[in-house]
Specification:
Order of helices and strands: HHHHH
Radius of gyration: 14 Å
Structural class: mainly alpha
Mean pLDDT: 92
Number of domains: 1
Distance between the termini: 33 Å
Number of helices: 5
Shape: globular
Largest sheet: none
């Protein structure tokens, strides 16, 4: 998997995921994104976090565009906590460049916080 920056879509997995979702009908995309981001847990590894964060960012974009709220069934705070727990526990295994871990963590926090504002 290639990563070229700390941004949400600055890695192959997230960019490919975005490409898959972009061709969908807006309501279909929202449903697919909700399904994707709610089917993860603390058994995920740090590399899978890229997909979750991308899904959260795309859901945020689509909900804003559709002027919709986050469904009550989606616990954004719990998802954020789980993602950050995995990230904090495992990210150093990837041997990131100096400062990259902090940049990436900031992006994750901002992405979840943006979606939480739609709750």
């Amino acid at each position: 998997m290639g990563t070229w920056g700390a941004g949400v879509f600055e890695n192959d997995a997230a960019a490919d995921f975005r490409s898959d979702i972009d061709g969908m009908d807006p309501d279909e995309a929202i449903g697919a994104l909700i399904e994707e981001i709610t089917n993860f847990g603390d058994d995920y590894d740090v590399e899978e976090i890229d997909m979750i964060v991308a899904g959260v960012a795309m859901l945020d974009e689509r909900l804003k565009k559709a002027k919709k709220k986050v469904p009550n069934s989606l616990d954004v705070a719990e998802m954020k906590a789980t993602c950050l727990e995995i990230f904090d526990r495992d990210f150093d295994q990837l041997e990131p460049a100096e400062g990259f871990k902090d940049e990436r963590r900031k992006v994750i926090v901002e992405t979840f916080d943006s979606l939480a504002k739609l709750a």
